Structures are given as C-alpha cells and as structure tokens.
Amino acid sequence: MELRNKLFLGTFVHSKALDELEYLHNAAVCVDTTGTIVAVEVDCDEPRAREIVLPGLGWDGAEVEVVKAKEGQFFFPGFIDTHLHASQYPNIGIFGKSTLLDWLNTYTFPLEASLADPAKARRVYTRVIRKTLSHGTTCAAYYATIDVPSTNLLADLCLSHGQRALVGRVCMDQLSPDYYRDASPDASLADTRASIAHILTADPTMSLVRPIITPRFAPACSLPLMRQLGALAHETSLPIQTHISENKSEIALVQSLFPRSATGAPDNSYATVYDAAGLLTDKTILAHAVHLTEAEADLVRARGAKVSHCPCSNSAITSGAARVRWLLDRGIGCGLGTDMSGGYSPSVLEAARQAALVSRHVVLGADGRGEGEEREKLSVEEVLFLATRGGAEVVGLEGRVGGFGVGLEWDAQLVGLGLVGEDGEVGPEEEEGDVDVFGWESWPERVAKWLYNGDDRNTKRVWVKGRLVHQRK
Ligand SMILES: O=c1[nH]c(=O)c2nc[nH]c2[nH]1
Description:
By secondary structure, this protein is an alpha/beta fold. It folds into 2 domains: 6-77 and 407-471, Urease, subunit C, domain 1, CATH 2.30.40.10; 82-394, TIM Barrel (Alpha-Beta Barrel). It has helices at 46-57, 100-114, 118-134, 148-161, 185-202, 223-236, 248-257, 260-263, 270-276, 294-303, 311-316, 324-329, 348-364, 380-394, 443-453; strands spanning 6-17, 20-31, 37-41, 65-68, 73-77, 79-85, 137-143, 164-168, 170-171, 209-211, 214-215, 240-244, 284-288, 306-309, 334-336, 412-416, 418-419, 436-437, 459-464, 467-471. Strand 13, helix 10 (294-303) and strand 14 form a beta-alpha-beta unit. Helix 4 (148-161) packs parallel to helix 5, helix 9 runs parallel beside helix 10 (294-303) and helix 13 crosses helix 14. The structure holds xanthine (XAN). Xanthine is lined by residues 85, 100, 104, 108, 216-217, 243, 246, 313, 339, 342. Xanthine binds next to helix 2.
C-alpha cells in the first residue's frame, strides 16, 4: 500500500526529559511517505501550513492527507511495551495466589506448550497484536514460545498488522516439564537460528520487526545453552531479552544452580551468571530487576544493559516493588512492560499508572511505615517518559521513535478525553470513557487525568511508521 505524505494538526504532547513533558499547541507535524517526521512547526494552523510549510517541503498540498485533532484531543507518542509474553495472553487475570515458580508450572507452561497448534497460535497472536495496538502500543518486545513455526507466525502477524516488534523464540533446556523443553543446547540454538533466519527474510532491513535472542531465565537454561546464546548475540549483534531477580526463591535457585565453581565468575549473583555467559550487553533487556544488589546494579550499568519495569506483574504474582528511582540514579535505562500474563493488563498506560503507585509503596518501605525516601516517587511526567522515550532506549530504538521531532518516525496515538458540556453530558459524538474534562483543567492536569483513568476508549487512532494501524470504531 502506497503511503501519502501527511499533515497532522493540533496539540502534541511528548517527553522532553525524564521529568518534563512538552506541550506543542496549534502545531503542525509533517510525515513523509517513509513514515518519517520531516517538519514540526508551532503556531501553525492549516492555512499557514499550506502556505509555507508544505511548499517548503516541495509537497503538493492537494496530495497531502490532513489529520486534525479535535478540541480535547492530542497526539502522544505510541507506547513501547518492553516486556510481554504474546503466548500467555489468554491467561491475563488468571494467577490466583501463585508466585513465580508455581505460577510457571501451574498456568504458564501448559498454555505456552499448547500454542504449537498453529490454529490456536494464529488466533491468540492475532488477538494480542490487535489488543495492544488498540491500547496505543506501537512497539512490543514479545516472547513467543519454544516452537519455531508459531514464533515465526507471530513475527509475520506483527508485520501484516503493522506493529513494530522484537520477536523472540524462547530458549529453555532444563528445569521445566518434559513436554515443554528444548532437547539440548544444540537443538535450542538450531531452532533459535531458524527463527532468526525466518524473521530476517520477512523483514530484511528490520524496518518493523527484528529477532531477539531469548533465554527464558537462568533457572531454565543450562550454562552451555546460555554460553551459546551469548556467543550468538556477539556474532549477530542482535538484542537479548531475559528475566532477572524477580522473586526471592528464584534468586536462591539461581545461586544454587550456578555456583562460582561452575561459571568461573567472581560470585554467584544472578547478574554475574548472565555476565559469565556473555548475555549482559548494551542490547540486553532485563525484565523485573526487583531485588538487584548494589554490585549487580553496577555490573548491569557497566555493561549498558537496560531494565523493563513490570509493576502489574510484580504486584500480581507477589514479586516485590522494584526501585525504579534507585535504578535510574545508577544510570540504568528503564522502560515499562505489561509482562502479560504475570501482568494482568494489555495496557502500557496501566503499567505507567501502576509504576507511579508502586513507587509510593517504595517510599513507604517494606513495612509500610514510611521509611523510604520521598524522592522515590515517580511523577506523571516520569512514568510517561518510561512508557515512550525510556522504552525506546530499552529496545534499542532511541533516536527513531518515542517522541515528536524531525528525523523520528511517526509512531503515535491520537488521544481523546470526554469534554463535559454545560448539561453535564459529554458530546453526542464522543464515546463515554472514565476521563471527564470540564474545561478548566490545565494541560498537565488533563494528562494526569488520562494517566490515572484513561483506557483504550481514549485511544482514537494509532499509527506506526506513518501507517494507520488502529482506529476506534
Ligand atoms: O514474569 C515472568 N514470566 C515468565 O513467563 C517467566 N519465565 C521466567 N521468569 C518469568 N517471569
């Protein structure tokens, strides 16, 4: 499908810095046929854009598609979900009182294994892509399963639906049930190479979809497998995703499985085990990092690995409250992950909201007596940074997506809030949502109301690389 040049008009909100949102009012953003932003002008209505900006770009105004935000609407960068399991989507909300290791065996491995059925995989993966797009997720770092054909199918479906994605075939050769385990390190590596080859054939320039090397987590991977995957990352320069320090029993298991005598590492901390296998790189996404030690944080920072903070999951399966400020203070890049289905929600907005709330529990301390520091609290601006620009850094797309600026690609959502009229009703052509705006709120207050009460009813349209990929009915 041939894309047209586009002119977007209205209010644009995006992160300028960790604690600062920028509001561009009465602005024009021009996006060319490659999906790249080529002009950003403020104080620019449509006549002025047609008179000055479009001719300056050499564009024929008659050919340009114009998209205007209505009153009460604004453009916001697409969300980046830095950690989710596409294969676990049918289980969201189903976790009972379980914690990580029993949750994996009870709920997760049986479902993932069942997705070797291609029809079931197609149904689940189509739905998770549609659902996340409808919540404004323009880029997702997906775990699939150990099965190669269905992992490849997930990548194909991301491409055909136009969602930017990193897609990983899950590697695991130990401590999981016989019915769901790689036969050997060599078999795991061969299957991983096969999936990488498929994805690189489907999108040779990785313009939308790229493979990501995915050792599930240290307990499920033998040292030879982790070493081979580290070598593969070195050989291919591909990114890596895995889990780290999510749960205290998991950490104890790692320490018993990988003593210093086996790894040759200076200690047996979780981060050191990955480092000894060559899995800590500047393209590694570490999900959770709830219980990292000071020395591990130093190592993660030194290697340039990033953290995906998954607050919904950390609360749901009782993993703990990750200290995001502590990670940021140590210079570790952070983004947000829904972590379905440890996490119960497909929405990065929900993850951002929960990140803000969990940070208040970090202030309160483990016993809730308020012994933490006030500055642990994350603001609206900060969690929305993590959801966009922070996420872009985590998935290696900083400078390409995450904000509005010349040279960035147009991955964006049009957000609409309910404007309450004099009669106390929202306009007839507006959909009821939970965000009611009365008109006296400042723009930062409107955005705060969206963060705390918004949902997919507010996500009117979504674009990836300039292409419209979701429109609310
Ligand atoms: O939240 C999580 N979800 C998973 O699927 C998983 N596997 C290992 N560790 C994990 N943590």
